[in-house]
Structure of AB-hydrolase YheT:
Amino acid sequence: MPITLFGVPSRMVVAQVRQNIIIIEFTGRSCQLSGHMQTLYCVLGDFSARDKVVYKRTLLRLLDGGTLGLDFTPSDDSHLPPDTPIIVVLHGLTGGSYESYVRAILSPGCVPVHQGGLGYRAVVVNFRGCAGVPVTSPQLYSAGHTDDLRQALFYISHRYPEAPLLGLSFSLGANVMTRYVAEEGERSRLKSACVLGCPWNLAANSSKLLTTYIGRHVYSKGMGRNLVNLLKRHVSTFASDHEVAKAAAVTMALTKPTIDMFDEHFTRIGGGSSPPWPFASASDYYEYSSSHNVLNKIKIPLLAINAADDPVVQDVPMDVEGNGWAIMALTPCGGHLGWFESGEVWGEIRRWIKGPVFEWLRATGEDFVRSPPRWRPLHEEGGFIKEVGIDRLGCKELEGSDIIMGTEGEAGLLAGL
C-alpha cells in the first residue's frame, strides 16, 4: 500500500523517506513528457487565456534609492479579515507577476474557499527592473541579494500586522528566499516557505548546463540573452561613470553570452549595492550566493520541490544535515518549473504542482502554530519603515497605484526561466 503525500495518492506517492528527504514516484501522465519538453512548454506555451489574475501594484522606494514593485491580489481585498494569510511570492530569473507558473497558483489560491480556493491574499515582489518596475539606483538583483525581500517584508508586515506571511518562490527567487530564511533564522518574517526549482549550488548547475549542446546554446544562452535584454532597458538610468554602468557596457557588447558570462561581467558587480559586493569573480559570487550550504540554518518550515529531469537545475542537495525544519522533495519528472500533466478535457494541459503547494500553504498557514516570533520591531524614520537596529535598510510607499493584468508579460523576454 503506497504512502500518499499531500493528498494526491492517485498520481504522486512517496517512494522513499529518509529523515527529511522525500523521493517521490509520480505515476501520472506528466511523465510522458521529458524534462526538456516540460521546460520548453513552460517557455513557449501560450498561457494568456488561463489563470488570469488582476493585481494592484504598490511601488516601494528603498533607502538606497532602488524601487520594488509589489503586486497585490485580490486587487480589492477590503472584504478579507485582517488575519487572512498572505502568500509572498518571488519570481524567477527575469520574470514577474505575469509568469504562468505564478498565476497557476495565485489564480485559484486567491479565490474564496467556497469556490475551491484558499481564500488568501497574495503579493508578488517584482525585482528591480522586472515586470515594468523602474530601475532608480545603480543595481539590479541577484541570487544572493536578500535585502530587497527583507525590506518588502517590512512593508507587508507593517501593512498587514495580523496576517501570517507564507513564502512561495520559483527558481532564482527560490534561492533568494531560502537564503533569507536561513539568514534570519527565528527572526524570519515568513511563517513558512515553499521553494520550487531552486538552483541551490550555482557553480555546479551553471557548469553542468555548459556540458551539453542544448544546455549551453538553448538554456544558458537563453537566460543570458534575457538578462542582457533586461539590462539594455535600464542601462540609461546608470550614471555613465559608475562602475555598474561600465560593467553594463562591457556586458552588452558580449556576443551571445551564457549566463555564467553575464554573471562574470555584470552580476558580480551590479547584483548588489553593499558588501560583499562587488565580487572578484563569478565564482566568488556563486560561492557566496548558493543556498545548498545554508539549509542547516533554517528555523521555519520549508518545503523544497525539485524535478529530477530538470535540465536547468541538475545538482539538487538531498541532505539537510538533520535540520527538522526543512523537507526536500524530488519528483522524477516536471522539468524546470513545469510539472505539467494532461487534463480531463482533450487538449487541456495543467500544472499538477499546485495541489501539493496548496496543501502546504493551508497546513502552514492555518494548522501550524508558531511560537512567538522574535522579530525586531518596526518603526518609521524620515518616512521610511525600518527595523530597530538596522539603519541601512528601509522602505516607503510611493504615491499612486496601478491595476496590473497578470497575463501581460515582458516583450522580448523568454518566459518561464
